[in-house]
Design a protein that fits this description.
Shape: globular
Distance between the termini: 32 Å
Strand content: 15-25%
Order of helices and strands: EHEHEEHHEH
Structural class: alpha/beta
Number of strands: 5
Length: 98
């Protein structure tokens, strides 16, 4: 399992889509391709933007579908962060159902 420390990568308020894109390209997609789990640790993160989470995980969900849903894990996420992740998941599920 690979753990990504969001605070270390993006700070207390994760909003930089370029950081999310880099994590997606360099860590998330290659690890999912190899069937590995990725854990996002949100310790010390007070908030995120929907665009950050979208840039972080939407391509993985688009490419790997259920495999991404099973292998992307979230740790230490506060209520606001969980709500944003849930919103992106719902949006992606709807777009995949079409």
């Amino acid at each position: 399992m690979t753990t990504i420390n969001i605070y270390k990568e993006a700070g207390e308020f994760a909003e930089n889509k370029d950081v999310a894109k880099k994590l997606r390209q360099e860590i998330i997609l290659p690890n999912l391709k190899n069937g590995e789990q990725i854990e996002f640790d949100f310790q010390q993160v007070s908030g995120v933007t929907q665009s950050f989470i979208h840039a972080l995980i939407s391509e993985a969900i688009r490419q790997y579908g259920d495999k991404a849903f099973e292998n992307l894990l979230y740790k230490n996420a506060n209520a606001q962060v969980k709500e944003i992740i849930k919103t992106v998941y719902e949006y992606m599920q709807e777009s995949l159902d079409i």
